[in-house]
Structures are given as structure tokens and as C-alpha cells.
């Protein structure tokens, strides 16, 4: 059974999905190369050459994606200099980038379950204890929420953004 759409959302023909948060997220991180750069940042890669080498994409694509992720606020540039070399930038996760971790882990978890066959290649564990880590929907008090139990309603505090100059 699907989620329960509440209030004015209950009539699917009466509303549009404009201003959808998923669309905004996909516009920013919805490409293979962007998600792989984020994966590598979570694994500790910080340098341009490391991203290009580990992901196996062209330097042009790496440069474009790093610029986009930096401008969007998911990564920040930090200068470094190897001995005898010139100053360069490395890329580190911001709080915004770290906040995306459950989404990326959730996507990998889904692929582990449905696309990897018998055993996934990696395990996600709490470093200190070795306990498995999973991404799930939970209420504020910790109860697990399944799709059948999920309600979706309009946020009474949300306000439609005003069109910018030149938009209709």
C-alpha cells in the first residue's frame, strides 16, 4: 500500500509537483559522476587527481562536478601545498555534504539488497563497535516507519518562492 496523502494532497489530480524537493536534489546530485565524487569524498578522497583516478572519469568532468558541488555548498576548497610544490586546492565535505551521507548509504544499501546477488562487496558498520549500520525511516522517538504507515501533508510553514526577475 502506498503512503497516505493527507488533506488537499489526497486528490492527486488537484495539485502539481512543482517545487518538489526531490527534483531540486536531483538537479544538484542526480548524475553518476556527482554521486561517485561524493562517495569518494566520504571515503576520504580530497584531491582532484584522486577523484579522477578513483572514479575513472575525465579531468574535465571532475573539474565541472567539483566546481558545481563547491558552488552548491556540499564541498569546500581548502588550500594545501606539498613540499617543493605550488599551492593547490583540495576538496572537503561541508556540513551540507555530510548531511547527504544517509541518502548515499541508503542508495548503496538498496543496491546491496536488490542488485548485488548473495553478498554485497562492502559492509557499513559503526567503526568503534563493528555493529552494522542501516538507513531507515524512523520517528523522532525511534519507531521504524514503513511505506504503509507514512503520511504526507502540506507543510503549513512553507511559502512558495517568489519568481526571480525574468521568470513567469
From TrEMBL:
Under the heading PROSITE patterns, the entry gives:
HTH_HXLR
| An example Gene Ontology molecular-function term | DNA binding
Record keywords = DNA-binding, Transcription, Transcription regulation
Domain named HTH hxlR-type: residues:
20-119
Q: Does the keyword Membrane apply?
A: no
Gene3D superfamilies found in the cross-reference section: Winged helix-like DNA-binding domain superfamily/Winged helix DNA-binding domain (1.10.10.10)
Cross-referenced InterPro entries: HTH_HxlR, WH-like_DNA-bd_sf, WH_DNA-bd_sf
Name of this protein: HTH hxlR-type domain-containing protein
Question: Native species of this protein?
Answer: Actinomadura macrotermitis
